Each structure stands twice: as C-alpha cells, then as structure tokens.
Amino acid sequence: MSSSANPQTKRRPLADLSGTILLAGAGKMGSAMLEGWLALGLAPEMIAVIEPQPSREIAALRERGLRLNPPRDALGDVAAVVIAVKPQVAGEVIPALAPFVGGSTVVVSIMAGRTLQFLAAGFPRAAIVRAMPNTPAAIGRGMTVAVANARVCDAQRALVDALLSAVGIVEWVADEALMDAVTALSGSGPAYVFLLAEAMASRIDSFALGPSHQGSRRLRALSQGDAARRRQPGRVLSRRGRISPRAAAESLRHRRRGRDLGQVAGARGRIQIGRRA
Fold it and tell me: For site-directed labelling of 74, which of 45, 89, 254, 275 has its Cα 20 to 30 A away?
C-alpha cells in the first residue's frame, strides 16, 4: 500500500490541471470534494457538476464559470468523471454518464461497495479508479483508499491522486481485495477514537477537576496538541509526565480481562497522569 501524501507535505495544487472535471453528485461528500478543488486552485470554469438538486452555493458558482447540468456537447474533452452518488442509484446514473467518457477520460467512483468489475460493465474499456473516502473527508481531513484498474496510466493516476488529495490523505492499494479491510479501518476507526475519547472525558470529569464541560474541552485540547506533535518529523512523545506506551499496553490487556475502560484509565497505580518532570 502506498501513500500519496503525508501530514508534513502540502497537498498537490490543482491550478495546472487541464481538461474538464465532471462531478456527478454534489451531496455532502461531493460538495466537500468540489470545495477542496476550488481551494487548491482548480478554476470553476474547468468544473462541470451534474446534480438535480444543487445547493445555493453550487448554483452561485455558475457566475464564476462552473457548468451546472450541462449537455454532453458543451464540455469538450473530459479528463475525469467523478461519481459521488449513492450506490443504490448507480444503475440509473452510470448509463447517463457513459457518453461523457472518452478515450482519455478516467472514471473515479467513490460509491461504497461498487467494484471495478461492476464499474467496468458500465464503462467498457475505460480507465477506472475505485476510491473510498472516510467521513472526515467531508471537512478536508479524511483518508481515501483507492485502487485502479489496468487501464489507468501514470498521468491519470496522478490526476486522480490530486483530486482525491483535496479532501485528505490518499492511500493506494494494488489489490482490490484489500479495499474492504482498509476501508473498514479508515471508515470505522474514527468511531473507536470517539468512543475512547468519551471514556477518557468521563474519567476526567470523575476527577472533579472542574465543571463537567471542561473535561471535554481539556481532552479536545490534549488530542489536538498531540496530533499536531505527531505530524512533526522525528518527534517522540516523552515518557516523563505522560502515559508510557508500556503502561498503556498493560492497561489495555487488563481491559481484555473484563475491567471497565474507565477503571483502566483511572488506575493511578498503573498510569500516571500529569506527573511533572
């Protein structure tokens, strides 16, 4: 599995891309991608959107050159068709998009569960990328896993990488069989992080360190600060004044023996919280 970006590098600007980018579906995820493209320099006149119920923000972009629900002959060469609709309407949408796909067009699908084989049935002989962003992509902080069929060339892969990088980090896999496992991790992972955060906030509140809302605020500041430090190359969390990795691992093992997560987090004899150097 290869990564196209990391937190220490800037996401690729889109100002130099050529050819029309056609976005089919401008719901939450499609709109987030569109917003990311514009933020990274893609000119509105290079974008066409097919959306039967566009938001006011998207409709307003027509004044800047964005083409909304255009006919096929109004687009010219289409470099990429990005399909961001719900998978249950794929059977209706794909035939309508097929005329937009030319010999040099790459089709990008972010529809959950729709395989390369399924997409190839609707776009014969097309270069196709199947991608799956997770929910934080809606705020530009996501992780997208992508796999390409054999028809995708290096230039098309670079284009898709730039488009997907507008909403976060992109990870490429060579084997589509890995998509389910990797997307389960990136898609479900945030839920486990939130669950752990809730347990920690509850335990912080039980220490009576202040009003209950302050526990969540302290935890949020802690999480954001440590996440920022982890993005710095060569930085290692100090064991002094923090939970050591060994103590954390031992506590998680105790969790498997049936101890409550809150009890583990509060076991002062095993995990020292806030000790000063």
Answer: 89
Confidence of residue 242 (pLDDT cuts 50, 70, 90): very low
The pair of structure tokens assigned to 74 is: 């109004």
| Cα 121 → chain centroid | 26
Work out the percent of the chain whose per-residue pLDDT is above 70: 66
Element (H, E) at 187: helix 179-206
* CA dist 74 → 71, 121, 132, 153, 228 (Å): 6, 26, 30, 26, 45
Mark which of 174, 204, 229 sits at the end of a domain: 174
Taking the C-alpha atoms of residue 170 and residue 180, their distance in angstroms, rounded to an integer, is 16
Burial 158-168 (b: 16+ CB within 10 A, else e): ebbbbbbbbbb
The answer to whether the beta carbons of residues 107 and 101 sit under 8 Å apart is yes
Residue 13 near residue 71 (C-beta atoms within 8 A) = no
pLDDT band at 269 (very low <50, low <70, confident <90, very high): very low
pTM summary value: 0.72
Of 112, 147, 174, at which residue does a domain stop?
174
User: Helix, strand or coil for residue 49?
Assistant: strand
| Same domain assignment for residues 139 and 227 | no
Q: How many separate domains does the chain show? A: 2
86 lies in which domain range? 2-174
